């Protein structure tokens, strides 16, 4: 058993050395990975309290435009694009529901 573990450790060590010295990894992957982590921390985090007035103003602007009927002045291309975005968001909601309940059929109800 110790021989098998020793083989695995030696192979893992040699593989790690090869990966660390590979120019593709050091020159391409590592900078991209750090950039991804930087953007993920910024973009995927919750909004800060200082962002709340901007969010509220944006929501109020959407409501004001809807009440004024400005959505009727959009081009067909933008209307189709907005519809496709709404359909995509709805489909991702349904996928999340299916994943959440771990079933395609529906929620289990006691009889």
Count every beta strand, where a strand is a DSSP E run of 2 or more residues: 0
N- to C-terminal distance: 53 Å
Fraction of residues in helix: over 70%
Mean pLDDT: 86
Order of helices and strands: HHHH
Number of helices: 4
Q: Radius of gyration from the CA trace?
A: 25 Å
Structural class: mainly alpha
Uncertain runs: none
Main beta sheet: strand number and arrangement?
A: none
- Approximately what portion of the residues adopt beta-strand conformation? under 5%
Shape designation: extended
Describe the structure.
- There is one protein chain.
- By secondary structure, the chain is an all-alpha fold.
- 76% of the residues lie in helices and 0% in strands.
- The model has no long low-confidence stretch (mean pLDDT 86).
Strand-helix topology:
Blueprint: H1 2-21, H2 23-43, H3 52-68, H4 76-101
Give me a quick take on this structure.
It contains four helices and no strands. By secondary structure, the chain is an all-alpha fold.
């Amino acid at each position: 058993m110790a021989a098998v573990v020793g083989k695995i450790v030696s192979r893992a060590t040699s593989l790690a050395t090869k990966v660390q010295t590979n120019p593709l990894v050091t020159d391409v992957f590592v900078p991209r990975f750090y950039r991804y982590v930087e953007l993920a921390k910024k973009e995927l985090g919750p909004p800060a309290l200082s962002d709340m007035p901007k969010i509220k103003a944006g929501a109020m602007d959407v409501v004001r435009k809807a009440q004024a009927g400005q959505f009727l002045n959009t081009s067909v291309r933008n209307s189709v694009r907005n519809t496709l975005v709404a359909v995509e968001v709805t489909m991702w909601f349904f996928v999340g529901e299916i994943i959440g309940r771990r079933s395609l059929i529906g929620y289990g109800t006691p009889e």
